[in-house]
Specification:
Blueprint lengths: L30 H23 L4 E2 L1 H22 L3 H23 L4 E2 L1 H23 L7 H9 L9
Parallel strand pairs: 1-2
Helix pairs in contact: 1-2, 1-3, 2-4, 3-4, 3-5, 4-5
C-alpha cells in the first residue's frame, strides 16, 4: 500500500476566464463588451432552463433559437439602460429562466419535446410575471433598496425590442 501523499500543485490559472467588470455598474461599456456579457448571461440562463426541464423532455432547435434571440434583444436593452447589473440580478433572472422552463414543459404537455409554440407561450407568461413584479416593486418607493433591484430586474423581460 502506498502511503505517500501526492504532490499536488494549486491551479495557477482559472479554468474559465471570467472577466468581472470593475467599472461602475451604470457604465454601459462598449457595444462589444455588452454583447460579450449578454452571451455569458444567456449561457447562464440556458443552464438554469435546462435544470428546470431536466430529463423530462428535449427542447427543439427552433425553440432554443427563439429563446436566445428573444431574450438577447431584451438583455442588451437592459444593459444599455442600466449597465451591467448581472452580479446583482443573477439570482432573479436565473430564477425566471427556471420558471420559463417549467412553463414550457407544462405547455408542451405530452408532446415529448418543448417546441416553439410551447416556448412562445412560456415566454409570454414570464414577461407578464416580470411586468407585474416590477410594478409591485416600483410601488415600494425606495429607489435604493430591494425594490429598485427588483424593478430593474423586471426590465430584463420588457416588451419592447430594445428601444
Amino acid at each position: 500500500m502506498n502511503t505517500d501523499v501526492p504532490n499536488r500543485q494549486p491551479i495557477e490559472t482559472p479554468v474559465v476566464d471570467v472577466k468581472i467588470p470593475t467599472r461602475d455598474s451604470r457604465d454601459t461599456g462598449t457595444q462589444a463588451e455588452r454583447e460579450q456579457a449578454v452571451e455569458g448571461i444567456l449561457d447562464d440562463c440556458f443552464f438554469a432552463l435546462g435544470q428546470a426541464i431536466g430529463m423530462r423532455m428535449t427542447v427543439d432547435y427552433d425553440a432554443v433559437m427563439f429563446i436566445r434571440d428573444h431574450f438577447r434583444v431584451r438583455f442588451l436593452a437592459a444593459m444599455r439602460a442600466f449597465g451591467n447589473r448581472w452580479s446583482q440580478d443573477r439570482q432573479n433572472v436565473t430564477g425566471v429562466a427556471m420558471m420559463l422552463g417549467e412553463r414550457a414543459v407544462r405547455y408542451a404537455g405530452n408532446r415529448g419535446s418543448v417546441d416553439l409554440d410551447s416556448v412562445r407561450q412560456a415566454a409570454a407568461d414570464v414577461q407578464r410575471y416580470c411586468k407585474l413584479h416590477s410594478r409591485r416593486a416600483g410601488r415600494s418607493g425606495d429607489p435604493s433598496g430591494e425594490g429598485a433591484q427588483s424593478r430593474i430586474a423586471g426590465y430584463w423581460c420588457t416588451d419592447d425590442d430594445g428601444g
